[in-house]
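Below is how a single chain appears once it has passed through the pipeline. First comes the sequence as given, then the structure the pipeline wrote out for it. We keep one example in the README because the format questions we get most often are answered faster by looking than by reading.
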Amino acid sequence: MRETLRTFIAVPLSKAITQELDKLQRRLMRACPAHTVRWVPAENIHLTMHFLGDILPERVGPIKEALTAVARNVPPFSFSAGQLGAFPNTSRPRVIWVGVSDTASWLALLHEAVNESMEQLGYKREARRFSPHLTLGRIQRKASQEDVRNVGKALSATQIGTLGIVTVETLIFFQSILRPTGAEYAPLATFKLGKAWT
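Resulting structure:
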């Protein structure tokens, strides 16, 4: 069986936002039942544009070429991060997240351009509507119904405002390396936005 790379395309976050997310996670850890949520390390939180999954190494080159073209046609832009939520909802949380607000819709445009370019290379689009968010944690499968309800109550009781503004200047093609301690994300390539706009 040939070796593959587990990959995804994402927008990185600023250090300031990462620190705010870390503070929020610590606050929620104190409020939620122990061992109920598998928290994402704050330094690993990013805004996913496309999860490619396992690819063959020879596909890396064409993906880089496609993303170079995408990035040069989207100018740098900003979005705000704030509002705490959960999928499917806070009454039955499975995924805990912080929302993203992009009033100028550049994020949606970048997402569409990435998906279109990957579709041309033979990768499937996600069936779900694009709902930009920053994943803080996922409920453990072994969690009891009572613990899940208590997580929902903790989320509903936690008020947060805007955590900050993220300026998006790059798009990153990541490899996800699964370790016993969790996933490590290694950049395969970084693409600077907006070269066609300069």
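The first strand starts at residue 5 and ends at 11.

See the next section for the split statistics.
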